[in-house]
Amino acid sequence: MQKWIIILGLSTSIAACTREAGYEIDQGAFGNATLNNIQVANGELTYAQILGQRFAAEVPTQINFAFDSAQLDASAQRILLQQADWIKQFPEARFRVYGHTDAVGSSAYNRALGQRRANAAVAFLTQQGISRSRLEAAVSFGKSRPLIDTPNRDRRNRRTVTEVSGFVDRHQQLLDGKYAEVIYREYIASASPPTTLSWEIDLGGGEDE
Q1: Could you give the CA distance from residue 209 to residue 205 in angstroms, rounded to a whole number?
Q2: What residues does each domain of the chain span?
Q3: Which end of the chain has the least Cβ crowding within 10 Å, N or C?
């Protein structure tokens, strides 16, 4: 009897979720994989650009700072830990950290401050076990590229941004043992079947059983 109750619950849920085929408008992502392949083949898109797009989509790329400071607060450290975990999965890639400031102060001072912020982010990433040779903190835009166009203090402009900059000194498609482990791990994660046991129990039961 219990099994019959579960089946009825599933049938009801499925019927409630039924939609006419094609009801949802295509958001334009259906052909992205094919488009990427064509652009790479034509030289319009590099592997570094593809990896950079994925990095920006999967982890926060920006951290922020207090006024006139290059100290990493708790929020910045949490974001950098996420970046470090992602970077470790792609040992063939190199990254660049760009330092920025708000508009308060001279250009020379802010360039130096932006550099200190980039250096602080890179130092933290290396402490997580990432090779310093894969990280660059040599670029600082100072106050020349604000997110918010204001002459006043604005935390959103006091930031560093991490981006994919290229590959280490070997071909990016070379699958050595370490990179093969990354691919295998991602394959296993994507192929794992969903755990439906607890879901079915929730559908069929209650506290009065």
Answers
A1: 7
A2: 42-204
A3: N
Q: At what angle do helices 74-88 and 107-127 cross, to 10 degrees?
A: 60
Mean pLDDT score, 135-161: 90
3-state secondary structure 101-123: CCCCCCHHHHHHHHHHHHHHHHH
For residue 128 the two structure tokens come to 């997580």
Task: Tell me the C-alpha distance between 163 and 165, whole Å.
Answer: 6
Least confident window among 59-63, 142-146, 177-181: 177-181
So what's the pLDDT on residue 9?
45
Average pLDDT over every residue of 152-173: 83
Give just the sign of the alpha carbon dihedral 75, 137, 118, 145. Answer: negative
Mean pLDDT of the residues in the chain: 75
Contact (CB, 8 A) for 82 and 89: no
Which residues on adjacent β-strands are paired with residue 95? 135, 164
Which CATH number is associated with domain 42-204? 3.30.1330.60
φ, ψ of residue 138 in degrees (nearest 5): -95, 0
Query: Coil, helix or strand for 66?
Result: coil
